Amino acid sequence: MNSLQKGLQRWLFPIAQKLEKQRHLQSVKDGVVAIIPIIIIGSFCMIPVGLGNLFGGSFGQWVNNHIEIFNFPTYFTSNIMSLFSAYFIAESLAKRYQMKTSSMLGVLSALVQLILCVSMKDTSTTWDVSSLGAEGLFVSIIVGLLVVEITRIIEKLHLTIRMPESVPPMVSESFLSLVPFAVNIVLACIVSGLCMSFMDTTFPKLIIQILAPAISSMDSVWAVAIIILLTQLLWFFGLHGAAITQSVWAAFAITYATENAAAVAAGQAPTHVFTYGFYFGFLQVSGSGITLLLVWMLCRSKAKSLSSIGKVGIIPSVFGINEPVIFGVPIIMNPYLFVPFVFGPVVVAIISYQLMATGIVALPLGEAPGFLPPGFQAFLLTMDWKAAVLAIGNVILMGIFYYPFFKALEADELRKEKELEQQ
Q1: Which of 30, 33, 172 is closest to 90 using CA atoms?
Q2: Are residues 115 and 190 in the same domain?
Q3: 301-315: pLDDT as tens digits
Q4: d(CA 184, CA 186)
Q5: What pTM does this model have?
Q6: Per-residue pLDDT tens for 74-100?
Q7: Bridge partners (DSSP) listed for residue 127
Q8: Greatest C-alpha distance within the chain
Q9: 49, exposed or middle or buried, with CB in 10 Å at 0-12, 13-18, 19+?
Q10: Could you list the residue range(s) of the whole structural domain that residue 111 is in?
């Protein structure tokens, strides 16, 4: 066991550290995660639809008759989420570079995102904004990063307009951003024009075609299992696993959730399992490693050290915050808890995915608020009571995984405490 841990640490630690420090990946993660509240608000519109499907009858008919009213907020949230994503990604990267115009670059990125994603319907003056939603999310990643990098090049070449120090900062910042605005907007117009003229498509559709194999492969049981395995391994070695791996999978998961929400709004069935809510509502319920029953065991432990940690961590764990336990027991680098903490969630992920993929448990309708007690987020996510049962069942199953390893840990702690008393 020790040799396995040392080998994994030698292999994973340097990679994880580089990913954690890589400013572009972390900016993408920050930007994409920042739009989660916006998507959740849009997903609230799916709750009446889900309830209508659940109860049916006259209530279901009434919901269908007023579907446009329920869907109205989605036009300004989920349906244009890539605008917000472009803003937050650029702002995050600019702050990491400590650029003075970080907020202005966020606005510029949103503007470039509009130019690349919006097209005109036929010969009319009506905007087609359908690509500003999930379809434009990957474009927003490109835009958010490139706008900042292009601006950095312009600033390094001293092509910006600088005002005297006596000029108010707000005015000075506006003139400082003038050349970067002009260059980025011109480049965006050129790219959009080339796509329309020579490829007869929009830039977002071109990106989706290129990424199609990766997008389709992420929503699979083995992809989810690998993501969970890597997340748990990173946590075990003291690194924030979810924060690191999210930079890779969050954009895909959010895209899937938005596509599900759009399908439900159109009266169709959702098609994706792997969404942001699925990850946290089923696979990380009560925190990474699904440790709620482990914390309960700690509370009841005869070992004083374990009992005190459990009592401190029990309430936060109910709401999905288990860092006090991960760092307090500690679970990190603890040989007794390596197997259940790292591999138990992988088993849970495979079971949960398969139950949804086979239709036994309903698929996510969109997104739902997190940091709720087990079962609540799962129900709001799917409007299916079986989803709540599955989430609670995952907690129970992980408790079974933890129990024999916890007893071994407890016996060792009791031995140490007895030795201390005898000294």
Answers
A1: 30
A2: yes
A3: 998 889 998 998 898
A4: 6
A5: 0.74
A6: 888 888 888 999 999 999 999 999 887
A7: 120
A8: 89
A9: buried
A10: 77-214
